[in-house]
Amino acid sequence: MAQDLFQAPDYYLLDDLLTEEHKLIRDTARSWVKREVSPIIEDAAQNAKFPKQLLKGLAKIGAFGSYIPIEYGGAGLDQISYGLIMQEIERGDSGIRSTASVQSSLVMYPIWKYGNEQQRQKYLPKLASGEFIGCFGLTEPNHGSNPSGIETKFKDMGDHYLLNGAKLWISNSPFADIAVVWAKNKEGRIHGLIVERGMEGFSTPETHHKWSLRTSATGELIFDNVKVPKENLLPNKNGLGAPLGCLDSARYGIAWGAIGVAMDCYDTALRYAKERIQFGKPIASFQLQQKKLAEMITEITKAQLLTWRLGVLKNEERATSAQISMAKRNNVDMALKVAREARQILGAIGITGDYSIMRHMMNLESVITYEGTHDIHLLITGMDITGIAAFNS
Ligand code: TGC
Ligand code: FAD
Predict the structure, then answer these.
(1) pLDDT score of 1
(2) For strand 160-171 and strand 218-229, is the pairing parallel, antiparallel, or unpaired?
(3) Does domain 241-386 sit in CATH 3.90.79.10?
C-alpha cells in the first residue's frame, strides 16, 4: 500500500466539541494505526490472515474494554472516547475494528453487565489485556435477522449444562479463547453462557473464501453435547433483550467506525484528484470530480455531527436503541457510497491494493450486513416512529 498520508477532515471544526482527553485518546489511536496497521494491512487482507501481532497494541490503546471500569482492567473511558477509538481503528481496517468491537461490546460488555463478580474477575482483565480473545455467538444457519428463533439449546443436567447447536458467521471464532453463546433453556428462554476453548465437543471451523473483511477471522461455533459448568451461565439478564443490549453497544461503535472509513476514502481521493493530471489539468479541477468530493465531505460532516450527538446522549445514558440504529444505518451506507465514489476518482489504480479504498469498500459489504442489516435498521426506525413492527409484514 502507498504510504499512509492520512489527514482527518474536520470541515465544521468539530474538534472544538471534544475535550483535550478525547483528542489525546484519538490521536494516540491514530498514530498507532499509522505506525502498526497501515504498513501491514494490505498484505494481511490479500492473504486473508488476521494479523495477531496487533492484539497487544489494540489492548494498549484501550480498544479492548474502553468503557469497562479500571478495576476490571478496562480503560474506564467515556462513550465518545470509545467511539473515537473505533473510528481510528476502522480508518485502518474494518476487520481490525471488528475484532476490537466484538471483544469490547459483545464479550466484555455482557460479562460486565450480565455476569457475576466471580465471572468479571475471572475474564475481564484477561480480555482487556488481549491475553484472552472472545467471540459472540448469536447468528445461526436458520436465524440471522430474527434471532428470537435460535435453536441452540442447553439442558440442566444437575451439576452442569449440556449445550447443543451451531452458530455461523462468528467474528474471531477460529482463534477465540472464549465464546459468549446465546442459547435457549427448556422453557425457550434465551440465556448467555461462557464456553471455553478446549471444552469437549466444542469446535470452531473457519469460514474461507470471503471477499470482505479478510483481515478478520470468521467461523462457526459447533456444540456437540458440550458440558458447560453451571458457573458459566450469565445470571443477571436473560431473554432476547440481553444479546440485543450488547448489539446496541457494538452498533454504536460501528457508527463511529464507518466515519473513519469514509474519512480515509475521502482524504485519499482528494489528494489523488489534486495530483492526477488529465487533459493537462488536475482532475480535481473538473466539476464532475468536485461534485463527488463536495458531496462526500457534506455527508461525512453530517454523520460526524449525528454521531457526536449520539455519543453525548450515550454518556448521559439517554441514547435509545432506535437512535443507535439510525446512526449505524446512516453512517455505514454513507461510507459505502463515499468509498464507491472515491474508488471512481482513482480510476484504474483504485481497484488495486496500492490504495485502501477497494479494501474498505469490500469490508463495508459485511459491515452493512452484520449487527443488523441496512433494511432491519430501517424497520427499527419505522417501528420507533409509528409504533408498529413491520418485521413480519
Ligand atoms: P422484539 O420483540 O422487538 O424485542 C425482544 C426483546 O428485546 C428488547 N430489545 C432490545 N433490548 C436492547 N437493545 C435493543 N436494541 C433491543 N431491541 C429489542 C425488547 O424490548 C424486548 O424486550 P422484552 O423485555 O419485552 O422481551 O424482538 P424481535 O424478535 O421482534 O426482533 C426485533 C429485531 C428484528 C429488531 C431484532 O431481532 C434485531 O435487531 N435483529 C437483527 C439481528 C442482529 O443484529 N444480529 C447481529 C448478530 S451479532 C453480529 O452481527 C456481530 S458482527 C461483529 C463484528 O464483527 O463487528
Ligand atoms: P438474513 O436474515 O437471511 O437476511 C437476508 C436478507 O433479507 C437481508 O437483506 C435482510 O435485510 C432481509 N430481511 C430479513 N428479514 C427481513 C424483514 N423482516 N423485512 C425485510 N427484509 C428482511 N453474527 C454473530 O452472532 N456474531 C458475529 O460475530 C458475527 N460476525 C459476522 C461477521 C461477518 C463477516 C458477517 C458477514 C456476519 C456476521 N454475523 C455475526 C452475522 C450477521 O449478524 C448476520 O449475517 C446478519 O444479522 C444477517 O443475517 P443473515 O445473514 O442470516 O441474513
Answers:
(1) 66
(2) antiparallel
(3) no
134-232 under CATH 2.40.110.10, yes or no:
yes
Give, in words, the CATH class of 14-129. Answer: mainly alpha
Do the two domains 14-129 and 134-232 of this chain adopt the same fold? no
State yes or no: is 187 an active-site residue.
no
For the residues 42-59, what does the mean pLDDT come to? Answer: 98
Q: In angstroms, rounded to a whole number, what is the distance separating the alpha carbons of residues 146 and 238?
A: 17
- Of 42, 88, 220, 371, the active-site residue reads 371
Q: How far is the CA of 372 from the centre of ligand 2 (A)?
A: 6
**CA quadruple 281, 285, 288, 293: dihedral sign:** positive
**Residue 99 beta carbon below 6 angstroms from any ligand 2 atom:** no
Report strand pairing: 134-137 vs 178-184: parallel
Cα–Cα dist 190/182, whole Å: 6
pTM, full prediction: 0.98
Average pLDDT over residues 93-112: 98
Map out the domains of the chain as residue ranges. Answer: 14-129, 134-232, 241-386
Q: What is the pLDDT of residues 248-278, one digit of tens each?
A: 999 999 999 999 999 999 999 999 999 999 9
Quickly count: other Cβ atoms within 10 Å of residue 311's Cβ.
Answer: 25
pLDDT band of 392, cuts 50, 70, 90: confident
